[in-house]
Amino acid sequence: MSAVLHPALLEARILNRESVRWAGREVQPLRTRKAWALLLFLITEQVYYGRRIHRREFLADLLWPERDRKSGLENLRQTLYQLRRRLSELQPEPALLEADRNRIALAPHLPLSCDLSLIRLGDTADLLRLPDTRVTLLPDLVLYDSEPFEEWLTGLRARVERDLLQALRRAIDRETAAGSWASVEKLALRMLAQEDFPDPDVYVTLAKACLRSRKRVQAREWLQKTDRPPRQIEHWLAENESRGLRAGLEQKPIRLAVLPLREVAPGSGSSFAHGLLEDLIAQLSAFD
Known about the structure:
Oligomer: single chain
Largest sheet: 4 strands, mixed
Helix content: 55-70%
Mean pLDDT: 86
């Protein structure tokens, strides 16, 4: 199922640009960078890892590692106050954040939409909604005075990058099996944008998708990036063209005519007809 970003009370954009809207209004500006980092941390942890509740001591050490525990907790308390005050200005009820003496969390059952969930689901339609350029997670969120937070952010970016490439590969395999070559081409281009040193197989996938879409010139250009000799490229094009032609000829539409079944007599005849009908339905459900 595709992750549709319907308007929600909390709308977060994490990829390529950072934006949080609460009740349709921008949360920024906030008084401190740490308040912004705290909010984005809570959202990202819930959306990507499913972790909603965090201990105050952990958050204090994450954002103020250079301070002693008491000072860090006091800074966290003031930052939380500033953040909740800003959110209440935008939308007093319901509360976005929950906090007690020990823990801080986003409110449960919160109507939340986030573009990061597109990668988690890995649906083809979702992946095609990602930016055509390299996907960057929280690109402007830097806290030079908080090494633990920077380590968290570095690890999260590596995890998201790996998950994105895996999701793209799985989607390409699905669309290739289905013969959806336009989707294969778009997905492969997105994969190409993510890697500094792309796997040559991505160029081959793009060449195959272009060839099946009758774009022979583009297919040749992609193959040239694999450093294959010209003769080998022409042989590959000719072979795959003929293979695609044969596949097109073999894919003949299936036509089935099913006559209505008639009950000729009660009793055993009736059960036989019902059983045969159920069998036909089960067999036909295998076809689109």
